Amino acid sequence: MSIVRKAVFPVAGLGTRFLPATKAQPKEMLPLVDKPIIQYGVEEAVAAGIDDILLVTGRGKNAIEDHFDVNVELETFLEARGKKALLQEIRAISDLINVAYVRQGEPLGLGHAVLVTRDLVGNEPFAVILADDVIDAEPVAIQQLTDVFARVHGPVLAVEQVPHEDVSRYGVIDAEPIGDGVFKIRDLVEKPRPDEAPSDLGIIGRYVLTPDIFDALAATREDQTGEIQLTNGLRALLQTRPIYACHVKGVRHDTGNKLGFLKAGVYFALKRPELAEAFREYLQGLTTLRT
Q: What does pTM read for this prediction?
């Protein structure tokens, strides 16, 4: 049984980068092949032994709640048509997890989204999974973090090396390597300019946190954008306890932007045996395409 039992999924964002597709449906429900983005993250949590899922939602996110709920009419229809394999797949979505929801009200930053789960999380370690980052890894990314957490008994952040010109899009760590892709963090900087970044290790969308983060976040002021940043809360927590980072081994796709979303769709389609050969032939045929 995993030492971490709960995973927080902040999904209250408006998804403006994908308008008009996200005007009436959540960005997290956009499909990669035949599964919505958020399902990849939930399945990752389940693979790591985490089955209590806390969704931080906002207005217009009902489709996410419906996706992880039982759909009696659909199940009855599939059963009547003898579509057993598809029925089993649909039932697995709701059978694997326990889901709770909390409203963020306004999208006031990742730190605020984590803070509103305080009562649901309680006094125990928990994971935070940003569904936009779809990571194909073995073991799964959040499992890599929980394994480190079991050794260091402190908060663990996922990091990867990012291009120098892109560091201003990430929280970046200044850290001391302690072996096997694990770092002890000296400082964290939210979205630094490239010439001010302490390293090229950017924080990506996986965290294992301890409940003392809530006091740190409650005392964290809003930044210039009016948001409470999780990185700033962690920086405050760093004054009272060690925090660690884990260089995740795997392939990450940032589906929060259009190019990353398109790349992820191609990547996962090519991993599907029933699609790979025909799809690869189609892609190779596009080499002569002219815009």
A: 0.92
